[in-house]
Design a protein that fits this description.
Elements (H helix, E strand, L loop, with lengths): L1 H7 L1 E3 L5 E3 L5 E3 L5 H13 L7 E3 L11 H4 L7 E4 L2 E4 L17 E6 L5 E7 L1 H6 L7 E2 L2 E2 L5 H11 L1
Parallel strand pairs: 3-4
Antiparallel strand pairs: 1-2, 5-6, 7-8, 9-10
């Protein structure tokens, strides 16, 4: 937090705590428990930082210690629209060997020449919505289609 403060600066709250520039923050989501979140907030307080500088993920403790790695699955955002402009967002940690690098921008799921599902990323929102096999399920808080787990399993079985 101190390094972020030195790099990006910020302001102070009415109570005198350091608040990072609004474009900067930290996500802490690795095995978070209520106690760990409290400990992190206490550490921030002792160093003079506001707790609002940190966003907590729920972590594997909420899921009986199962993580995305347990199931080989993660869900990330890859595209957002800000003031009418598309922004391709992605994850590519400098400390990683490429395993955690995410797709970027709109994603189109296709079938390749060998008949296997594959994807193409960096597509526009219009292309990602109009092409491939992905279909919207939720839009602006509304559920567009409800399916049971049995429905999904049946569709998978039929496609094999």
């Amino acid at each position: 937090m101190q390094i972020l403060w030195e790099l990006f600066g910020g302001t102070e709250t009415a109570k005198g705590y350091k608040l990072l520039d609004s474009h900067i923050g930290c996500i802490y989501g690795d095995s978070i428990t209520l106690q760990r979140a409290k400990d992190i907030c206490e550490g921030l307080k002792q160093k003079g930082f506001a707790s609002i500088n940190v966003v907590f993920g729920i972590g594997s403790f909420t899921y009986q210690y199962n993580t995305r790695d347990t199931f080989g699955f993660a869900l990330k955002s890859t595209l957002c629209v800000v003031d009418g402009q598309e922004r391709h967002i992605f994850k590519d940690p400098k400390t990683d060997d490429g395993v955690k690098k995410s797709q970027k921008g709109g994603v189109v799921v296709e079938i390749d020449e060998d008949g296997k599902y594959t994807y193409r990323d960096e597509a526009s929102l219009d292309d990602a919505s109009a092409e491939g096999f992905l279909e919207p399920v939720f839009s602006y808080g509304a559920t567009l289609r409800f399916e049971t787990l049995a429905d999904i399993r049946q569709r998978i079985t039929e496609s094999l």
